[in-house]
Amino acid sequence: MLTALVCGQNASAGPGLQQTARALYQAMGQPKSGFEPALISACQLGDLECLPARGPGDYFRLWRWLRSQDRLLLVAIGSQSLKLARRLYKMRKKGATMLACVFEDARPPVLASRDLAPVSLCICSSAFVCQAIEAAARAECVVAGPGLDLEAYESGRASSKRIIFGMGQSLQPDSGALLLIRAMSALWQQQDLPPWEARLFGAGPRFEEIMAEAEKLGVLSRLAILGEQPLAKVSGLCHIWLAPGNSPVEKPETLWAGIAAGLPVVCSDTRLHCELAWNSAAFLQVSHDNPQELARAMLEVARDRQLAGKLAAAGARMRPEIGLDAMAARICQALRTKFADKEN
């Protein structure tokens, strides 16, 4: 039986990292997982029982605990945990420990080769992150994430009085918001559509640019820029979810919020979206640089309720696979495969 040590974060850890640590810890605690997890953290992670790592006394107790383990798998959750994980790794006898790191963020961390020197396996959230890590690491890099907290999402609450298009991370560079504004201009000319509007969520530097473009093209009255809000709360208030961006560091929730909320989804055909949209039946994909194509897709889903229902049904089948439990299962499988290779 392996002993898996999941290294938690310091006090600055965000909720996403804490959710990843919790999900992985719980998955490793299953009877047939092949792991026996223990959680080490520089701060308390909710109600999970942790081995503390906050001072010299804690490190002495950890050293004694580490000496009692024959075979050990250290898993650092996020780049901020690497320093702690490497310190624990050095306490161990050479050759008795495997060190892995989970990078669940959409943006590649800034790490030097020496930071990753003892790491045997890097588990990344996307191929883009994987390529960035491979440039600095000699370790094997695989893609096995990410995941969403599906329990936070609600569906079926949107009013039927008008068609509401929703979009997340809208004010960031390469979000596709300008493409949407131009598509809205083409949609404006359709006389037989019921009332509609586009709601843009998220914070960023492109507010004035988007507002100016909407005013210039005459669609300002159909646009609502609603700022940073939890997509789990607002995506269910929409009818159709849009992800027209082409950023390689776009958060997975920007695309998956529509699936989690039970909506039909229209997205661009970028590499990241093709990677995250492995069930192509759940998405209507369009070019990331053609507003007319985006407008046609929006119009098609808005008019054709059978198509919208088909997309939503395919998304419902995909939904369990984007959750935290599925993410943790993928990470556990990657760890089992790598550890078995090392043992052999």
Overview of this protein structure:
Helix 1 packs across helix 13 and helix 6 packs parallel to helix 7. The two termini are 16 Å apart. The protein contains 13 helices and 13 strands. The mean pLDDT is 89. The strands form two sheets. The protein has a seven-stranded parallel sheet, sandwiched between helices. By secondary structure, it is α/β, with parallel strands linked by helices.
How would you summarize the topology of this molecule?
Blueprint: E1 2-7, H1 15-28, E2 35-41, E3 51-52, H2 56-67, E4 72-77, H3 82-90, E5 97-103, H4 113-116, E6 121-124, H5 127-134, E7 140-143, E8 163-167, H6 177-188, E9 196-201, H7 207-217, E10 223-227, H8 231-234, E11 240-243, H9 252-260, E12 265-268, H10 271-276, E13 283-286, H11 291-303, H12 305-318, H13 324-343
Parallel strand pairs: 1-2, 1-4, 2-3, 4-5, 5-6, 6-7, 8-9, 8-11, 9-10, 11-12, 12-13
Helix pairs in contact: 1-13, 6-7, 6-11
Short description:
With 344 residues, this protein is α/β, with parallel strands linked by helices.
Overall body shape? elongated
Major sheet details = 7 strands, parallel
Number of strands: 13
Distance between the termini: 16 Å
Strand content: 15-25%
Question: Helices and strands, in N-to-C order?
Answer: EHEEHEHEHEHEEHEHEHEHEHEHHH
Question: What does the average pLDDT come to?
Answer: 89
Structural class: alpha/beta
Flag low-confidence runs.
none
Percent helix, as a range, is 25-40%
Taking Cα atoms only, what radius of gyration do you get, to the nearest Å? 23 Å
Question: How would you describe the oligomerization state of the chains in this entry?
Answer: single chain
Number of helices: 13
Lateral strand order in the biggest sheet? 3-2-1-4-5-6-7
